[in-house]
Write a structure and sequence with these properties.
Length: 177
């Protein structure tokens, strides 16, 4: 399985990961604020269609020891947050929600048991164009790496170096125009 996200249609990227299960455990890492804070962002979720989702990002909390922010992202060093809303939910297999940005986009997580593992498919649709696709793809790529490490029982050592490396690769992979 290729770790890089794929452009599946205009302004849409899709990621696939095979993660340690069971499915209920992976679901908790998507929906429980404390567990989600270890790989993405803290924040409560009202688990119903139309329910509020809060994301409070503090990237320095993702790794041990905490990493310095790259200059490009220093303005977010004290954290950044935004509110979204759930658009679809079928526990523990499907979670979709809006995503704040230059234009409102949508994130969908689909979970499928595969023996003792779980296939996670993340689709981020209606992105704001190529620059948004590169940024979001790099972010999801790095965050999903941290999620996989957490589910494997490992303590992630890096976020920003991975982000920078894959950002350069997504610049090449995502076509202009």
């Amino acid at each position: 399985m290729n770790d890089f996200g794929m452009v599946t249609e205009a302004r849409t990227v899709r990621f696939e990961r095979l993660l340690p299960g069971p499915i209920e455990r992976v679901w908790e890492y998507l929906t429980d604020s404390k567990k989600r804070a270890t790989w993405l962002a803290a924040g409560e979720m009202d688990l119903r269609v139309g329910g509020k989702v809060r994301f409070d990002f503090k990237h320095s909390n993702l790794t041990t020891p905490p990493e310095a922010y790259p200059e490009k992202y220093k303005k977010y060093e004290k954290g950044v947050g935004f509110d979204c809303r759930i658009t679809r939910i079928e526990p523990p297999r499907l979670l979709a929600f809006t995503w704040a940005g230059p234009v409102e986009s949508e994130v969908t997580f689909e979970l499928t048991p595969k023996g003792k593992q779980v296939q996670l498919v993340l689709t981020h649709a209606r992105l704001s164009g190529r620059d948004g696709m590169v940024n979001v793809s790099s972010g999801w790529h790095a965050h999903l790496g941290v999620l996989a490490q957490r589910l494997e029982g490992e303590v992630p050592a890096t976020f920003w170096p991975v982000f920078a490396k894959v950002e350069a690769e997504y610049e090449k992979r995502i076509p202009q125009g």
